[in-house]
Amino acid sequence: MPLPVPKTYKLFVGGKFPRSESGRSYQPAAHPATNVACASRKDLRDAVLAARAGLTAWSGSAAYLRGQIVYRIAEMLESRRAGMVDELRRGGATPVQAQRELDAAIALLVWHAGLCDKLQSLLGSQNSVQGPFFNFSTVEPTGVVGVLAPEAAPLAGLLALALPALVGGNAVIALASERAPFAALALGEVLASSDVPAGAVNLLAGRRQELAAHFAGHRDLDGLLVAGAPVAALTTAAADNCKRVRYCDLPPAAWTDVRRLRQLAWVEPFVETKTIWHPVAP
Fold first, then answer.
1. What is the pLDDT of residue 282?
2. How many helices (H) and strands (E) does the chain have?
3. Which residues pair with 247 in a beta bridge?
4. Would you call 24 exposed, middle or buried from its count of C-beta atoms within 10 A (0-12, 13-18, 19+)?
């Protein structure tokens, strides 16, 4: 009889799979025998350092290459379909719901992969100016963006918020669903084999009420994309360090509706516009 090997769900930081530095773990509801690493404030700081390092490689890559890497994630997710469906079912989804959510996640990846090398055309411009000059506006990443994923649709919801930041060339630190982190943390195994530069995407799990305040207050996080209604305490903490914050308050069913999740409006807040003047040759 083979020896069972129960899975322990670890964080994904800097391309590696650490347990929490605090040694803590927690058992999501309905899974008292499953241990999930419970990230601490120190784990968030480590993730920010990893994201700063990963930002250089990710933002320095050509937009076409970033699109190819995002598409590779979709390929790898499809190749692990059975395993990812199991992770979603562990989180409480029915077989039909799990298949639907995985289909939505893959569709989001493919759409954002195609967006990568079109972003300059969509958000940049050639401006009409008076005088012998060319004037161009181009977009650049904001930096490191934190994502607080929704409890509903733990895989598709996380990707729906993380991908807009990635498309803009930002590095991402995402906090998975507290109730059902399984599929989101398994996504780290997909990312590790998808040519994503180490640190470009980091995945944490733990108590949202504890970690959300640390996300908002961390002075080296440049932006925060939050699933849910606006929270005054987060907005106030983020304002103290001039962090850009956006809230995405959608009903639970919308987090698997690809038509509602393909949002250029979620990309635009986390890019900066740079205007260049260039003289026209006589």
1. 67
2. 10, 10
3. 226
4. middle
